[in-house]
């Protein structure tokens, strides 16, 4: 089976400071993948490097065997919530319609068809009643659902989500993970940057553990081992002891 | 009305009125994107930075429009280069580069030994608009508005969520410098009406007023352009009637409109917020 994503020997640095060293892994189509690691491990950097948003010093990234440039139309990216200006004069519906922009191309405007599709995507995340609200009037969880709706509107094959579960309510988290699982069942590949180890077991079927370099990658039960985690988190957390007791 | 009669009678006033309206519209529209991208300071910088270009163009006898765009873009690039390649933050880099360009411009103009020109470039003199200036403004206006119309989607995404734009393949940096080009063009168009020093007010104040009044970008664009026109026309009226500096008068009117919106805006005005807060407190007692 061809890989949905192949990453080979990726190096990234900022002003000469190494951020990622020799990262290689591959992801099967239809996987729901968690990217975990401590703060400053380079998780967001990895996503940005994969999407070619920051330059790589070295390395190769293939999506379904092709270069990112040829695959941009098939990729959806959801940024960290803290990177968005929530006072921006835009309604929930218009924010989701942006998801249709890549396929519309230059000069063409979204029409009724795009609006109807955006509303459908909003319905999926349970936000159709908020379509006319300004995005800043929503709670954190609702905002995250709207951005997921935008990603759905892109009809992508591969999804990248940067810390989607930070600062949101439990119900929204459940809605989001439910939709992600559904996408993965339908053969879409999803990579999620995740901030901690809670619920990792329930959420993902593959894990990439990162701390400047690749600590481990593969099926969740292979990777979720005390030695891998202690290497990533340098034994800083007490829950690792618990894990070892369980093991 | 005396002003209306005068407009009908005097060609110079017609030209002034037409130019002011055009400037109100284009500053208002471009200004929306400037404030939404958090680039108010950048707007101030680029408008000042056209001065050396204008001066050099005068000296060489070429169209000052070319010189202005050249020095404006060069400054924008220099600002980006310094902040991206050192620990110097963007606002510091802006402060260094635009004052440098402005100072250079002042020296160049002084070398030309014509202080009246400097005064007019810095503060504008709308009643002395020549036909050629008017046509330049019209040409710039059409180009700027057409560009914004064509690239509305791209400007919207890169202002709202530039990372998403880059992820689906938009040239985000290219769009930034394209907007900087529009900004220098708008500055040139506004030289006669408000002058270099106060252009930034026409870019930011009507846009900020509109920002307080709506939650939709396209409404904001129309509102901001409309507010720009209202400020220009009323400003021109007072400037003509009481013999006041045109640029300064227009800016004062724009600021008054802002203060009205700041106080009375139905959703974001301070007055409403105050009343709402009082009611809430009252209902708790």
TrEMBL record, chain A:
MF terms (GO), sorted A to Z: ATP binding
Keywords attached to this entry: ATP-binding, Nucleotide-binding, Transport
**Domain ABC transporter as annotated: residue spans:** 5-237
Which Pfam families does the protein's record reference?
Answer: ABC_tran
Q: Which InterPro entries match?
A: AAA+_ATPase (IPR003593), ABC_transporter-like_ATP-bd (IPR003439), ABC_transporter-like_CS (IPR017871), Metal_Ion_Import_ABC (IPR050153), P-loop_NTPase (IPR027417)
Q: Which SUPFAM superfamilies match?
A: P-loop containing nucleoside triphosphate hydrolases
Q: Which PANTHER family match?
A: IRON TRANSPORT SYSTEM ATP-BINDING PROTEIN HI_0361-RELATED, METAL TRANSPORT SYSTEM ATP-BINDING PROTEIN TM_0124-RELATED
Family of the protein in this entry: Belongs to the ABC transporter superfamily.
Q: What is this protein called?
A: Manganese ABC transporter, ATP-binding protein SitB
What species is given as this protein's source?
Bacillus badius
From TrEMBL, chain B:
- Entry keywords, A to Z: Membrane, Transmembrane, Transmembrane helix, Transport
Topology versus the membrane: Multi-pass membrane protein
Gene3D superfamilies given in the database record: ABC transporter involved in vitamin B12 uptake, BtuC (1.10.3470.10)
Output the superkingdom of the source species.
Bacteria
Under the heading InterPro entries, the entry gives: ABC_BtuC-like (IPR037294), ABC_TroCD (IPR001626)
The membrane spanning regions, by residue number, are: 12-36, 57-82, 94-112, 133-152, 177-205, 217-238, 244-264
Localization: Cell membrane; Membrane
UniProt cross-references to SUPFAM superfamilies, sorted A to Z? ABC transporter involved in vitamin B12 uptake, BtuC
**What broad class describes the main subcellular location of this protein?**
membrane
Query: What's this protein's family per the entry?
Result: Belongs to the ABC-3 integral membrane protein family.
By what name is this protein known? Manganese ABC transporter, inner membrane permease protein SitD
Q: Which organism is it from?
A: Bacillus badius
Lineage summary? Bacteria, Bacillati, Bacillota, Bacilli, Bacillales
